[in-house]
Amino acid sequence: MRSGIVLLRELCPNFSLPFPHWAGPHAQRQQMSNSSSITEFLLLPFADTRELQLLHFWLFLGIYLAALLGNGLIITTIACDHHLHTPMYFFLLNLSVLDLGSISTTLPKAMHNSLWDNRDISYLGCAAQVFMFVFFISEQYCLLTIMSYDRYVAICKPLHYGTLLGRRSCVHMAAAAWGTGFLYAVLHTGNTFSLPLCKGNTLDQFFCEIPQILKLSCSHFYLREVGLLVVSACLGFGCFVFIVVSYVQIFRVVLRIPSEDGRHKAFSTCLPHLAVVSLFVSTSFFAYLKPPSFSSLFLDLVVSFLYTVLPPAMNPLIYSIRNQEVKDALRKLFSWTFFSSDKVLISLHK
């Protein structure tokens, strides 16, 4: 029997036998040592042929540059225009920073793999990617919840807006959101990568994701991370309920405004945020809550690409199209930039 197992291990290097509960601590330690031997993970490629890999690279590069340009313009416009130094745009600036961070966590590695026909990511690189992805996504969800509170106070309690959302209060709420995201990422990353892995090193995803890593963990050890995910899902559901209740109150107040211009102005400040929340929640919920009958490698890859890449790339477009103040500020920024460049050229010519 022993020689047969040795032969099977030589033929299949990733082979391992699950240990029963009576096998003792020595067998458990031996099974856990398999995870320490993993130095890299293999990610799921987008395509098998070289032509499609290069096509994916150029597509990812275009999306990434568009996200960098859009979010960079939002950050620069809000920072340079003192008329946008309000709580709503302060939170929008934070959201753009998070969008840049989240899309930079996953897309550059996918571009690198598509360009160089590569699949591997180091163990530490995978841990760093998990940490940064969880940090930015959880922080983004917290910030979207705070932004719904900002819109609720601005429309439903406008007389108390200055006191409830003063500069210090906004900084405290943003700091609390950043701190919550950091703590959340530390807990999940530390808990996930402390699990023993005994089912190979191949991930069915184009980036390192906690559910895919849990599939590689030994039985009975992943339950604590699943429990933490359940608690996190409950907290996320609470934030979702808060956002829904806030917008129910907002729409009740807006529909009572007698003037059509007043209703239009109120809707114009709420609809961009509501569109961003809908895009973020719908794609992420479908990715994690879709029925198993809808699950396939290709569909999972497409859905995960949508919820990790589409919101950061689309958010600047949504806010710039629906928000007149942002459009006016962008127009002033471009005119000032071109005017300054013309003055420099004239001075150099003289």
Quick structural overview:
Helices cover 76% and strands 2% of the residues. The protein has helices spanning 2-11, 24-36, 50-80, 87-116, 123-156, 161-164, 167-192, 210-214, 223-254, 260-289, 297-322, 324-349, and strands spanning 40-42, 120-122.
**Quaternary state of the chains:** single chain
State the helicity in percent bands: over 70%
Q: Note the beta-strand portion.
A: under 5%
Largest sheet: 2 strands, antiparallel
The poorly predicted ranges are: 1-34
* Rg, alpha carbons: 24 Å
Listing every helix as H and every strand as E from the N terminus to the C terminus, the arrangement reads: HHEHHEHHHHHHHH
Gross morphology: globular
Mean pLDDT: 79
The number of distinct helices, counting runs of at least 4 residues, comes to 12
Structural class: mainly alpha
The tally of strands reads: 2
Structural overview:
- This protein is mainly alpha-helical.
- The chain is built from twelve helices and two strands, in the order ααβααβαααααααα.
- The chain has helices spanning 2-11, 24-36, 50-80, 87-116, 123-156, 161-164, 167-192, 210-214, 223-254, 260-289, 297-322, 324-349; strands at 40-42, 120-122.
- The chain has a two-stranded antiparallel ribbon.
- α5 packs antiparallel against α7 (167-192).
- The protein is globular and about 65 Å long.
- The protein starts with a helix and ends with a helix.
